[in-house]
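pasting for the record
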Amino acid sequence: MINNYPNTGYAQLALLKDSVQEYNSGNTEISLDQFTRLKNLTNGSSGNKLLNKIASINIARINIDLLNFDEAIKVLTFLPNASQDAYVNELIGDIYLKQGNTSQSRAQYLSAASMYADEGNDVGQRLVNMKISNLK
């Protein structure tokens, strides 16, 4: 189904499921390739924005695991409205922290905390505030 009807919602959901299974089985590169395929299939104005965001975030997280921090940031910043997404800002803050850039990390975390507060997401806001408190 994935190969014969790649543009259908069912095939894209199956590809998402397979991508996650590959990652959980330790097949990081295969998972990365599949998430990239899903991202490409769901790009554009007629694409599935939710699946595209899920694929992009997973591509970024895998790149973080592979220590490809610049690629992870690139993927996240190309998401539509990335600068207005609390979770994306938090994740970029995590990347900067792993790179040892605490000032950039703090800026991203502060932005994320503000967005979480605007959304009424107390849990997200508290978690990010803990990250800010732990910065040196």
